[in-house]
Amino acid sequence: MAVDHETSERWRKDPSNWVLGIFYFNKADKRLFPPKRFKFTGWTLNFANPVSIATLLLLIVVMGLVSYALKKRY
Questions:
Q1: What is the pTM of this model?
Q2: Is 50 left (phi over 0), alpha (psi -120 to 50) or beta?
């Protein structure tokens, strides 16, 4: 289901969708990477979407494995 630009902008600007002002949490928004509260600063994760949480955890695991492999090598 595609969401129109007006709705996505309203979600982004709504303070109730931001936990502590920096974590985006909106169950109605299915995007993994919505724009940050201030668009010019990039994108963030939608922490209400389980796929984005899995993506974040996978990224952390990969970074840890790469770090571990580099430490073992040198």
A1: 0.77
A2: alpha
